[in-house]
Specification:
The structure is a homodimer. In chain A, about 45% of the residues are buried. Chain A folds into two domains: about 300 residues, Bira Bifunctional Protein, Domain 2 (BirA Bifunctional Protein, domain 2), CATH 3.30.930.10; about 70 residues, Anticodon-binding domain (Rossmann fold). By secondary structure, the first copy, chain A, is α/β, with parallel strands linked by helices. Chain A is about 35% helix and about 20% strand. The interface between A and B is large, with 87 and 88 residues.
Chain lengths: ~400, ~400
């Protein structure tokens, strides 16, 4: 049986050192995006349930956590078999972003370059590496229909990957209009495009033979054969004109044209991206242009393009060393609990702060080595004993933790 | 009628400049606490509803947002009139902290000094300055029964207030055991202590006469008269022995002994604190020792003391200047959309990054002044025009925004 004091199923506590690593990575991501002129915004964790389940979120809508109405409204809903929830927890950052833009447009720059970092919630079956609360890092450019928007998004993404030491990551790129052209060319009727894309999207898992078989089953042998012939002839070096500016302007070697890239969501209208890293079994991010979506709540067309980094996968890839802090950290061990010793410890704490250190005070325990081991595991590399005669830095003997204690 | 694209009632979007101010303040708070050896942790936004409503959270439990069960479990609950929710959103950070400690104790330092920063949710009636999602900043020390814990918490709090420029803030201090002694001395039976504390806690609002009247009504004239006599004789300078180490060791002048301080929650067992600032109508933080609570899920006694900063009130008090960033920020305006100009802009962006600047690219709009006004409102103080001939920094003329454009 589960420990009765665990967090809810599929959700996680973070220990201090894990939290520190996560926050260091987030700081690097935020700082890099901000250097590109992206501005961080924040939306509430909840949105009206009707908005969350209005069709924008695809399959994720079914995974939304729904929040109960309260008071008389709930009583009435229960009595009449009505809708029990009026709010829901966001399952991605895109639906809240488009709502935010509609709400606040008048106060935002004409070209709005947004950073959003925060938890999202999905009631998925928990499994390895998949959580019910997890962090996404999104950047979006709203209001720029030119490919400068894609170039900035991709440049910012490449710079983030570099700063995190993920220089082996590659961004695969395709274009939704090219996909549509391809489907027409394969003889697939427009009504079957969505179904065909779902099948082609499985290339990673099913490989070519599996996709060909599924296409044959769903759309007939002719389509399957045409696809088989097409994929054998694909030339990933022949970047089409629609994507040429991206390949010309983004750091050489970091983009790869992938004519088979589909991306799950139905709302993409232009270039689409997916970030791969050789050490990760699945993509670590993705995005694309979605010109139709933002305008929906405004009754006007607003171009938009975004890319989302799967933070949980990124954390697993980034090494501790890449984000280690340089701040010195020292433990001052109080030899007794007298007011005099405490006063001295507080004074020495101020002296070490002035040198830029993180200074932790600890009572002297029965077994000093156990304390020092624990402090070492928590990032402290030095310690000093403090007693009622420790009046100035000259009285303090700083020792490295690990050095023999006596 | 409300705008159909607003965030849910009582919840807020943050515009880029608001978000920046909030994050700068949070960074200062986190950094100061970390310098004291506090370590940040994170718990999920949700906890099991049974735990959230187990009595620890006082009146706030009634304000918890409840999250619907899913699938067959929900169907069954609806059919049988059972409990509809299995999870709830946290309404404070203390209940999650005690659960976290019970879950992770074996992996934490013996004296655990925690920072928790994050949103909490309460289904309150929205009103000015009161929100349904708001941020709390807590520090807690678990596992130290000595007054060193209080001294560290209060020193850290004073240092945070100082770093935020809130040097006028004062921390009122009292002790629950002294309050109990007082109530006994006033002739109040133990069964009436909670009720008497609730009344005395209203001194701010009701003043002495109102409290005396309410005590008379609830507990009789004799108690009311005794209280009236006592409060007339109170000497805030006569710090009792129980609190003497705090006044001796924390920065002089920042603590004030307040023998009438009660604090709402029932779980306090020792010193209690409340942070006041002359520019805020209500307290901006508070806390105290709660030795009985953490052990509840462990079946053992664990001493604990914590203090929570009301972040939303703090944000209102801190001036923009106190937290302004020093990073230079420049807008590069692309005179046309050619690949050559874009390439030059990206190269100049790298040059300005090397100088430590935040560099934003913008298309040249019809009315340059409107763009520059908007950029200025978003923290950019300089701009430069870029075209197909801008090949090096020598070709770039940086101008201050606000300088006449032509």
């Amino acid at each position: 049986m589960a420990n009765p004091v665990n967090p809810p199923r599929g959700m996680r506590d973070f220990l201090p050192m894990e939290k520190r690593k996560r926050d260091s990575i987030l700081d690097l991501i935020r700082g890099t995006y901000a250097a590109h002129g992206f501005q961080e915004i924040e939306t509430p964790a909840m949105e009206d349930i009707a908005r969350l389940t209005s069709g924008q979120g695809g399959d994720n809508e079914k995974l939304a956590y729904r929040v109960l109405k309260r008071g008389a409204e709930l009583d009435e809903a229960v009595a009449n078999g009505g809708e029990l929830a009026d709010l829901g927890l966001r399952f991605d950052l895109t639906v809240p972003l488009t709502r935010y833009y509609a709400t606040n447009r008048a106060q935002l720059p004409t070209v709005f370059k947004a950073i959003q970092v925060g938890p999202v919630w999905r009631a998925e079956r928990p499994q390895k590496g998949r959580y019910r609360q997890f962090v996404q890092c999104d950047i979006d450019i709203i209001g720029d229909s030119t490919s400068l928007a894609e170039v900035e998004l991709l440049t910012a993404s490449v710079n983030v990957l570099n700063v995190l030491g993920l220089t082996d990551a590659v961004i695969r790129v395709n274009h939704r209009e090219l996909l549509v052209k391809l489907l027409n060319q394969l003889g697939i009727a427009e009504k079957d495009h969505a179904s065909a894309m779902i099948t082609i999207d499985k290339l990673d898992k099913l490989e070519v033979s599996g996709v060909v078989a599924e296409l044959a089953e769903r759309l007939g042998d002719k389509v399957a054969k045409a696809f088989e012939a097409w994929i054998a002839s694909v030339d990933a070096e022949a970047v089409p004109a629609e994507l040429a500016p991206l390949f010309e302007l983004v750091e050489p070697g970091r983009l790869r044209y992938d004519p088979t890239l589909v991306r799950g969501m139905g709302y993409y209208t232009g270039p689409i991206f997916e970030i791969d890293h050789p050490s990760s079994g699945s993509s670590i991010g993705g995005g694309g242009r979605y010109d139709g979506m933002v305008g929906r709540w405004l009754g006007t067309d607003v171009p938009a393009v975004g890319i989302s980094l799967g933070f949980e996968r990124v954390v697993d890839l980034v090494s501790e060393e890449e984000v280690a802090e340089e701040q010195p950290a020292i433990v001052l061990v109080l030899e007794d609990d007298s007011v005099e010793t405490t006063k001295n410890a507080l004074a020495m704490q101020r002296e070490f702060w002035a040198k830029g250190a993180n200074v932790r005070l600890e009572h002297k325990p029965k077994r000093l080595n156990l304390l020092l081991d624990s402090m070492s595991a928590n990032g402290y590399e030095a310690f000093a004993m403090i007693n009622s005669t420790t009046k100035s830095l000259g009285d303090v003997e700083v020792r490295a933790i690990g050095q023999s204690v006596e």
